[in-house]
Amino acid sequence: MSQLLLHTRYQFLENLREPIAAVSSIAFPALLMLFFVVPNAAVARDPVGATLAAGQMAVFSVVVSYMFNIASGVAEDRDKPWEPYLRTLPSGPFARMGGRVLTAMAFSVLGMLPVIAVAALFTAAEATLPQVLAALLAVLPIGLPFLLMGMVIGYLLSLKAAIPVAQLTLFPLAFAGGLFMPPQTFPGWLDAISHALPTRAARDLVTGVLSSEGAVPASALPVLLGWTVLLAGLAVWAYRRDEGRRFR
């Protein structure tokens, strides 16, 4: 536990040493909401629509923090001579990976706070305190597939390749998952594909918690669990593949 907290502390501080990158990742979801949701009077003045839009941006904040930051962080560490030395230590990879996970969680929470502030100040979003707390508690664990996806990208690719691949993966997943536009506006073929994506499942779970009906599609949890199992296997394989290349 002490090693886990130590790695978390240093990785968190390492991210803060690049304030532009840290602030941009934290502010980006709120800026999207400020530029695309707030000017849309039909959504911003509708309590239900504004609340669901805030939930979607909260999910996007987690996706950005988990996937992009993990992918770039892992790839960057692999380029440093310090990382091979850490892998030779008997403590194993769990403290380092756990520290990376906790750091990503911390930045995702920081990214959700501006979204909540924009929704409260500039829209008619309505949610009770228990709903907000339940959404915050739900959105952190359901981001696990994106964290694992970031690890797969980071361990398979160099830093120069990991960043564009993460971006090219992130935005199509976010769009097709209904994080930028309500899935109700999708054509039938895109809606069918969307239901199989982890972004759509995460979005449906969070918006279900925030809505008064509390309805969540039955496919949401199985889709998230399936992606988590698949990506966990790929992450382990990518880690062992990278370790085999460095230490064989």
TrEMBL record:
Record keywords, A-Z: Antibiotic resistance, Membrane, Transmembrane, Transmembrane helix
Membrane-related topology note: Multi-pass membrane protein
Transmembrane spans: 20-42, 48-68, 101-125, 131-156, 163-181, 220-239
Places the protein is found: Membrane
Domain called ABC-2 type transporter transmembrane: residue spans: 3-208
InterPro entries: ABC2_TM (IPR013525), ABC_2_transport (IPR000412), Nod_factor_ABC_transporter (IPR051784)
Annotated protein name in UniProt: ABC-2 type transporter transmembrane domain-containing protein
Organism: Nocardiopsis rhodophaea
